[in-house]
Specification:
heterotrimer; A: mainly alpha; Ammonium transporter fold; B: alpha+beta; Alpha-Beta Plaits; 37% strand
């Protein structure tokens, strides 16, 4: 890897690490004040356990060998990965991908907020990483889904759809929060939500533009797309909400920004021109309504992981079928429908997402059921009503 | 001696304080509280879901005065805190059996 | 008229508010306070150092009611705030000499 690219990948990796605390603040602010530390800890736990597992066997199982479904054990403990032949490029890539592996299970924490036992979460995260994230990652990057021609630049299918549908499976086993949906709780700290949103947006430039794994034109376009899609989605969400509910809210802006970032993630290195505005705009509109699904179908996805990450990821991934523009990137991928292609790419996008959805939902459901039948997944009622911060962690957020 | 307690709209804090000072009150305690009366709170909408916020922010004044100034203090609070709109608040008066100034140990009206 | 003051566990705030509304109470004030009773606080450990938190968070309710409503209001608070565990709180009643509604100037029971 050349020095410029190596620099960019290392900087991007650090930016993606910063997204996990960003996500923690984003979720923590939306949570109630007696559970905010539990939310932060669920997120920070991911950056404790995942790097360790990633080094020991996660990376090897996710990228080793040429299997269609799962990697191999060639790189256990990063065996054989040196820094002399390629200037440390592979090691930088492993670090970069490790950050992705850390934030993906963290996304699920927003759904299970306010009621999941931390001990159950502590076991859920490594199991989910190895049984769900790693195989789906391999299918998409170097496995059968990627080989069929589906596109996922920075993790729309592998990360957002994957974690989003897992969040749904998790809450179906976990059950609803006490009192929901009759009693809801508004965000306890909107400033915390906005700080988290800012950190996420900043980090997302590393997430998307870093996924070019090079300092080149594709990285630059991905950077620009990340900029524009988030702005368009935030704008649309605020306008819709203003018209529908009467006020332009901070949470609407934050939610739209994140929905736009999620949607542009799979498309960032494949689309150009006005496409990020359209993809972001559609994601802002669709997600603004999708967050209402939980009240209609009564699944208690506390902080809207399904409505924002699953739906946003799916929207962005499918829109690649319309907007992919290989000529612009001098790329070898298929053209989208708006650039002279047929419906072939759209079909591959649908197949890839459907495959990830079925696997992720089923395995997550099984993991949660096993945890429920063994150590239990819910805090007791006393802890749920008095707060997880003191009940599980012995700390209070505000004195 | 009487304890006068008033619950008012928060934005009237400074007006009421100034008005009480002008009426000769030398000390008072305020705290941020929440409450509702006939106005019944308000609602906030987040991600399209409406949350009923029963308790709206209020400010509580507490001051101990001599019996003779109760009337003028009530008048001062009323004049300064009133907007004519629902939610202006209430004032109530309770008896104080004993009052002690901690520094000097003075008791009774001298300690006010 | 009486002033009813109750100190309760914070997580019982909504239960008590709903019980009081159901009992016909039209207005009340709450504040976040800290205190301890026989339970004597709790301890929290940060970086291995234990901190004794003597004052644990509590919620104070204040409401002014007519004499006849005192018993049902006490019953409502007791039923809603009780967990049977130490630290459930206290309720006390004081006499009110005078009550004024700021907006209209109404006095006495009409101002409740």
């Amino acid at each position: 890897m050349d020095a410029g690219s190596l620099t960019w990948v290392l900087v991007s990796a650090a930016m993606v690490l910063f997204m996990t605390p960003g996500l923690a603040f984003f979720y923590g602010g939306m949570d109630r004040e007696r559970n905010v530390l539990n939310m932060l800890m669920m997120n920070f736990y991911c950056v404790l356990i995942v790097p360790v597992l990633w080094m020991i066997l996660g990376y090897s199982l996710a990228q080793g060998g040429s299997g269609n479904f799962i990697g191999n054990f060639d790189f256990l403990f990063l065996d054989g990965i040196g820094i002399l032949d390629d200037n440390g490029g592979q090691l930088a890539t492993i670090a970069f991908l490790g950050m992705f592996a850390a934030i993906t299970p963290a996304l699920i924490s927003g759904a299970v907020a306010d009621r999941m036992k931390f001990s159950a979460w502590a076991i859920f995260v490594p199991l989910w990483l190895l049984l769900v994230y790693v195989p789906v990652f391999k299918w998409v990057y170097g496995g059968w889904l990627g080989d069929r021609g589906s596109l996922d630049f920075a993790g729309g299918t592998a990360i957002h759809v994957n974690a989003g549908i897992a969040a749904l499976a998790a809450v179906l086993v976990l059950g609803k929060r006490k009192g929901w949906p009759k009693e809801g709780q508004p965000p306890h700290s909107m400033p915390l939500v906005m700080i988290g949103t800012g950190i996420l947006w900043f980090g997302w430039f590393g997430f998307n533009a870093g996924s070019a794994l090079a300092a080149n034109g594709q990285a630059t376009q991905a950077f620009m797309n990340t900029f524009l899609a988030a702005a368009a989605a935030g704008l649309v969400w605020v306008v819709v909400e203003w018209k529908r509910d009467g006020h332009p809210t901070n949470l609407g802006a934050a939610s739209g920004i994140v929905a736009g970032l999620v949607a542009i993630t799979p498309a960032a290195g494949y689309v150009s021109g006005a496409a990020p505005l359209v993809i972001g705009g559609i994601a802002g509109l669709v997600c603004c309504y999708a967050v209402k699904l939980k009240s209609k179908f009564l699944f208690d996805d506390a902080l809207d992981v399904v409505g924002v990450h699953f739906v946003g990821g799916l929207v962005g991934s499918l829109l690649i079928g319309f907007f992919a523009n290989p000529e612009f990137f001098d790329g070898t991928f298929e053209e989208g429908i708006f650039y002279g292609g047929d419906a072939g790419l759209l079909l591959e996008q649908a197949i890839a997402n459907l495959s990830a959805i079925v696997w992720s939902f089923a395995i997550t459901f099984v993991i949660m059921v096993v945890l429920k039948k063994t150590i239990g997944v819910r805090v007791d009622e006393q802890v749920e009503t008095t707060g997880l911060d003191f009940g599980l962690h012995g700390e209070s957020a505000y004195h | 001696m009487k304890l006068i307690t008033a619950i008012i709209k928060p934005f009237k804090l400074d007006d009421v304080k100034e008005s009480l000072k002008a009426a000769g009150v030398q000390g008072m305690t305020v705290s941020e509280v929440r409450g509702f009366g006939r106005q019944g709170g308000h609602s906030e909408t987040y991600r399209g879901a409406e949350y009923k916020i029963d308790f709206v922010p209020k400010v509580r004044f507490e001051l101990v005065v001599e019996d003779g100034v109760v009337e003028s203090v009530i008048a001062a609070i009323k004049a300064a805190a009133s907007t004519g709109k629902i939610g202006d608040g209430k004032i109530w008066v309770t008896d104080v059996d004993r009052i002690v100034r901690i520094r000097t140990g003075e008791e009774g009206p001298d300690a006010i």
